[in-house]
Fold this protein.
Amino acid sequence: IEGTAIRGIPIAALLSDHKLQEELQIPEDSISGSFLKPWQEIAKICRIGEVSKFLRWCAYDSDFTPNKIDNRFKTWVSKGLTNYYSFVHKGILKSFEALQKDHGLEKEDFFRYLQVRHYFNKNLKDLLGRSGSSFMEAFLSLIKPRSDCKIISKLYQATQLCKQENTEYIKKKWEKEMNVIISQEGWEEICQLPWVSTGSNTWREFCWKNVTRFFVTPVQRRFTTNGDASWRLCGFNGAD
């Protein structure tokens, strides 16, 4: 019954394709419907947005016209080419030669690759690196082959971050300015430092303000309109 309801299309290919879900008319009380509903709730809570398009499969994507007249794309599924993210390596679309080596595509698949590349460049390329939500970042990293372990705990942690106010946006600012990647564990240690390094509430507050970027930095000062005048308004320049 469930196979008939989704017409053989994997449930994973339906997650972010609402048009395809409507075409299939999946009953809410079916097993497939029970899988889709929690995903829709997570997508709303974590504000996944357009980045979820990476989860569509080129073999079934309702917006990818070539798959409607060419069933060859469905054979790619058995080769490991499922969602569009499976075509990506280190932030760029893989070359046809790389897909031949990694997934066994044949020469006659080249023009199909060009069709996928055209669709990708037009609709998805600009979304690379804009995962936006911590949940989507975790989810995309875990659906890659040979992904890291602790899948459930990482998804749970990412979901919890979406549900509450957090300092993730501050961490991203530090990463961008310093051009480094700060691990979640490392960021937690940084945030704990003000409370374990001193018993003085005054110094704790001062340290925490440094971490949370409360003070105006030289970079921020470049965008002020008062020039280099002292913040004390005493008439001097460059006073500290």
